[in-house]
């Protein structure tokens, strides 16, 4: 076990975990940030997506020792009141079925739009294709990204 | 007033935190960034609320609390159920607060999610729950104002006496209303007067889901709880011979390694620590049954198709004679592989077996069954077991099984500690309860005029039970018919997978009928309509589907898809009746760079009254995508009893780029709701296969389509 000082959602937090612990399990088990989901553990499904310095990354495959002082944003820190344009669009479009994958989807969509507020259909598809939604909410994911983009 | 919720989570946590002051296992609440860890949203009704019935409480401050008793796994029941109550109550939807009820068999019947049956089962109960309370509120208003009840109205959450201009909220009258005798009969609204039912109402858990609040079973944490992962046999047909846990036990954070039944549980302080330690287990397995491979199944299918002892499910007329007299016969076989349910949230359950009772928390489609099995297993009375329902991160039938709940309870009873058992994705894919693999043989006999005079279907399945649905269409429209099945018993475990059996049978049947229509030189839509007309004018045997409703979706899908009128588009048709509802799809396939691409699916569904238009669209689109994804890609194979695909890198799921436009239409009628969680899935594969045939001249007989030799190099979903 080693102590790591992490910058998560603009707060400095310390955890005492094994060096190879994926950020996902630090967030969930050590910090109670359970909005970041465990889906596959091998960076295939995207449920565990967080932002690392604004880039969408898979927290299940990122060891805590590699995080360093980089800025981590989780779904809990995406907006103070849960009103990030992407979150609002997700609610307005009523995207979710089971909802389990949606926080990861939202993190990828928000990372995309922060860099590229007016993405083409193809750019949206390329970003969102990295996620699996077992319920098949893909149409509404597209609709919600387009809606959020229109408000940026 | 009875206690509405057996566990008040917030208080429980406070107690746990106070009692467990010195405990430093795993999670430290002091660093909890999430603040509270309420698994359930708003776990309690507001203080002073008045219970009107099992579903409904109203607080003096006018909070309308409606309980949703059934497990929510994405079918949107947690929004739809309360809508039905609120409709008859004439409530102001914005004042409604929805709570997930825990397992409570005294208050609720059929607290399960399966068979697309929740709304059909509860429709009238929910309406009466709302209507009864509305009646009592009106009576209470009339009593207070000393006027006749017929002059008092309940609209949009307000009780009004129009003549005098007096008005009170439901909340203001709730206490008085609770003293009004409950009427034996209440008048329900006319369906044309619905203002909430039929509207697109947003998911009541939307905000919580999109902000990452703890909702799901896996999000459940409690101070002092231990984590566990279980190593189960990787090959079906093997059992543990010996376990060497020395290395695993020596790992940091590991509390214990426990062997029970065929399970080796690694118990520790954090998920990652147990995951790592589990890899160090040295377990020797020995064979206790046959170790089957997919190659064995392929061979068995062909053998049993001809020589297997079949169970006959339906016979009409004289099939043998009819086939002998036929002008033309068509025989085709179709095969599908095993599938994993693969809900996004891996299996998990929390259990705390104490001296005085058992606490279970987690995602279950069948909480009552889970409790019963646990009660038997632990020798505890069921009423000593509480089961708190979390939101389910998908189910698709996997969570109808109780294995993952009972193993947590068993482990907790052994280690005498609260424990959450978490499965990895690999555990889920290798852990069984799959959609059974099935092979079908269809035979049809046509007379000289192209009429189908005889029809045969045999299903051969692996742990599939009856792999046919003998009373479905086209039964009833053919004079001579024989439907039977053969089952091979295997150590590989299977279970209900969304639209059990029909999820594959429908494709095979609808693809076959397309060939029969072609042989009869008839348009596929016209061919089906003629069969249905025949079933109506001259029914053969029992007819257990509604002919008019089936025709209705066929005609609507044909109209909305411009059937047969599109240029440069190849269309395929399929229709299916399952779980009381009717769905027809038309698939549009276009050739792009010489390869077929699925561009659009037009769907027509008849599920009776649509409760929530937003959720209903989701169920149809989701069903289509589920059906398409698994028809194109889904494939679980075995080698010596072990699953070969263990995670999403080898078990392929449909993704964003592969999804075509899905245009959904509903038949408008006033039939009581008949269910929608499953019926859109079954006909999808058939519509797609039939459209691909039109586009390429190639018939598809095996799923997944993309592994068919003739589809080599084709990704049917790729549009970009």
Notable traits:
heterodimer, A: 152 residues, 5-stranded mixed beta sheet, 34% helix, globular, B: 720 residues, alpha+beta, 7-stranded mixed beta sheet, 17 helices, disordered N terminus
Tell me what you see in this structure.
The complex is a heterodimer of chains A (152) and B (720). Chain A is an alpha+beta fold and 152 residues long. Helix content of chain A is 34%, strand content 16%. Chain A has a 5-stranded mixed beta sheet, sandwiched between helices. In chain A, β1 and β2 form a beta hairpin. In chain A, 61% of the residues are buried. The model of chain A has no long low-confidence stretch (mean pLDDT 97). Chain B has 720 residues and is of the alpha+beta class. In chain B, 29% of the residues lie in helices and 23% in strands. In chain B, α2 runs parallel beside α3, α10 runs parallel beside α11 and α14 runs antiparallel to α15. The interface between A and B is large, with 67 and 74 residues.
């Amino acid at each position: 076990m080693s102590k790591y000082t992490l910058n998560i959602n603009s707060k400095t937090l310390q955890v005492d975990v094994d060096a190879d612990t994926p950020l996902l399990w630090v967030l969930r088990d050590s910090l109670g940030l359970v909005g970041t989901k465990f889906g596959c553990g091998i960076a295939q499904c995207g449920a565990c997506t967080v932002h690392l310095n604004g880039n969408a990354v898979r927290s299940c495959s990122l060891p805590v020792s590699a995080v360093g002082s980089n800025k981590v944003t989780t779904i809990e820190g995406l907006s103070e009141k849960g009103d990030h344009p992407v979150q609002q669009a997700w609610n307005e479009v009523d995207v979710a079925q089971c909802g389990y994958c949606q926080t990861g989807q939202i993190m990828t969509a928000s990372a995309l739009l922060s860099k590229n507020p007016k993405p083409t259909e193809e750019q949206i598809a390329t970003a969102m294709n990295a996620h699996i939604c077992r319920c098949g909410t893909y149409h509404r994911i597209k609709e919600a990204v387009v809606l959020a983009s229109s408000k940026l | 007033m009875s206690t509405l919720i057996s566990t008040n989570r917030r208080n429980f946590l406070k107690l746990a935190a106070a009692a467990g002051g010195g405990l430093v296992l795993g999670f430290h609440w002091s660093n909890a960034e999430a603040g509270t860890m309420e698994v359930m949203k708003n776990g309690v009704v507001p203080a002073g609320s008045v219970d009107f019935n099992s579903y409904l409480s109203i607080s003096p401050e006018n909070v309308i609390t409606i309980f949703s008793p059934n497990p929510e796994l994405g079918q949107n029941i947690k929004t739809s159920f309360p809508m039905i109550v609120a409709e008859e109550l004439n409530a102001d939807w914005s004042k409604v607060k929805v709570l997930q009820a825990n397992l409570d068999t005294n208050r609720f019947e059929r607290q399960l999610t399966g068979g697309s049956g929740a709304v059909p089962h509860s429709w009238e109960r929910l309406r009466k729950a709302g209507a009864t309370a509305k009646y009592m509120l009106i009576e209470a208003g009339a009593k207070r104002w000393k006027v006749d009840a017929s002059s008092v109205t309940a609209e949009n959450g307000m009780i009004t006496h129009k003549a005098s201009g007096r008005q009170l909220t439901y909340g203001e009258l709730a206490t008085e209303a609770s003293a009004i005798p409950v009427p034996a009969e209440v008048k329900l609204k006319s369906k044309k007067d619905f203002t909430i039912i039929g509207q697109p109402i947003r998911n009541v858990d939307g905000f919580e889901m999109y902000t990452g609040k703890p909702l799901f079973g896996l999000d459940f944490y409690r101070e002092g709880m231990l984590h566990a992962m279980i190593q189960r046999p990787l090959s079906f047909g093997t059992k543990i011979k010996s376990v060497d846990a020395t290395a695993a036990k020596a790992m940091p954070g590991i509390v214990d390694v426990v062997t029970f039944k065929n399970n080796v549980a690694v118990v520790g302080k954090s998920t990652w620590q147990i995951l790592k330690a589990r890899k160090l287990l040295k377990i020797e397995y020995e064979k206790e049954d046959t170790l089957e491979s997919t190659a064995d199944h392929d061979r068995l299918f062909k053998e049993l198709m001809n020589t297997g002892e079949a169970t006959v499910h339906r016979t009409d007329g004289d099939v043998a004679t009819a086939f002998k007299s036929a002008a033309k016969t068509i025989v085709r076989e179709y095969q599908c592989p095993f599938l994993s349910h693969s809900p996004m949230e891996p299996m998990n359950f929390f259990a705390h077996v104490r001296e005085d009772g058992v606490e279970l928390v987690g995602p279950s489609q069948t909480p009552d069954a889970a409790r019963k099995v646990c009660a038997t297993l632990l020798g505890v009375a069921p009423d000593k077991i509480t089961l708190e329902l979390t939101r389910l991160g998908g189910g698709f039938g996997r969570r109808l099984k109780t294995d993952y709940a009972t193993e947590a309870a068993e482990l907790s009873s052994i280690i005498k500690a609260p424990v959450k058992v978490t499965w990895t994705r690999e555990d889920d894919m290798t852990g069984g309860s799959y959609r059974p693999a099935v092979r079908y043989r269809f035979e049809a006999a046509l007379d000289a005029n192209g009429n189908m005079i005889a029809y045969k279907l045999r299903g051969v399945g692996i742990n599939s039970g009856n792999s046919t649905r003998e009373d479905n269409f086209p039964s009833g429209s053919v004079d001579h018919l024989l439907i039977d099945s053969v089952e091979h018993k295997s150590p590989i475990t299977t279970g209900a997978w969304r639209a059990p059996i029909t999820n594959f049978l429908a494709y095979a049947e609808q693809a076959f009928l397309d060939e029969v229509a072609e042989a009869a030189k008839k348009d596929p839509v016209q061919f089906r309509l003629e069969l249905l007309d025949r079933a109506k004018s001259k029914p053969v045997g029992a007819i257990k589907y509604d002919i008019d409703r089936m025709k209705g979706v066929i005609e609507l899908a044909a109209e909305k898809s411009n059937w047969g009128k599109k240029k440069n588009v190849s269309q395929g048709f399929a229709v299916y009746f399952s779980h009381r509802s009717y769905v027809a799809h038309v698939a549009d396939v276009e050739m792009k760079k010489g390869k077929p691409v699925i561009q659009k699916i037009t769907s027509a569904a008849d599920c009776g009254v649509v409760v929530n238009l937003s959720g209903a669209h989701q169920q149809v689109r989701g069903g289509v995508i589920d059906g398409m994804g698994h028809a194109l890609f889904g494939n679980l194979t075995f080698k010596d009893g072990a699953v070969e695909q263990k995670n999403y890198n080898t078990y392929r799921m449909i993704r964003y780029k592969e999804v075509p436009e899905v245009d959904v239409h509903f038949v408008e009628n006033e039939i009581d709701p008949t269910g929608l969680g499953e019926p859109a899935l079954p006909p999808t594969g058939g519509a797609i296969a039939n459209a691909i045939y039109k586009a390429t001249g190639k018939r598809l007989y095996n799923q997944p389509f993309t592994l068919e030799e003739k589809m080599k190099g084709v990704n049917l979903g790729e549009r970009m």
